[in-house]
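INTERNAL AUDIT FORM
Audit reference: QA-55
Scope: verify that the stored structure record matches its stored sequence.
Auditor: D.O.
Record contents follow.
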Amino acid sequence: MLERITITIDKNLLKSVDANIDGKSVRNRSQAISYLVEKAMGKTFKAIVLCGKPETALKKIGDQPVLYRLIEYLKRNGITEVIIALSENSQKVIDCVNKINGVKIEFVWDDGKGTALALEKAKNFLNDTFLLSYADVLYEDLNLNDFLEFHKKNSGLTTIALAEVKKTALFGTAKMMGSKIIEFEEKPSESETNLVNAGVAFCEPQVLSFINQKTLSFEKDLLPLLAKQGKLMGYNYSGEWKHYG
């Protein structure tokens, strides 16, 4: 939970703080101070990337695979520990991410049994707030600091970024009440809403306790369950977003 404080700071030092405001990942003085304090304390957030279909994660965007660009984006936003959850042992995926410097990579395998199970396999790595992303999406305009601030402020167990699309049949859709998602449905044939899961979320480690033999899929089982229990939030994202699956 975020807490408002008042501080007194030297004018020259404040200029150095303001120099970190880039209008994207750090939008204002409050976020700049938070960023610098977390950096000084060595606090970073881990990310888990769900890579169910290696072939889609390895699609080339220009001369780089989607997954490579995604992890480079995470690195630019201060995430230096990434868990790749694979449905199968893919040497091509391993070779792709091993080319990235400055990021610690771990691998888990869910044996093709479900994306929620992939989270459970990675539970030893996920003991604090973490970012979850699919491997076949790019959202490079997303301000992770603002997204995280929203997640903490609203106290949900999971907050998913929501994009607006015309055709919703290929995505999970979210029915909202304020910042809360009151109904989530994965790939419905018809939908009353055009807000869909953008493939990136902030989660609290407590979500792992919901995973069992009835919640093997993050999208089909876990997200609808969290919505019913009032623990799922939605963050509206209007920047560029592409899904390559």
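Auditor finding: record pair retrieved intact. The longest helix spans residues 29-40.
Action required: none
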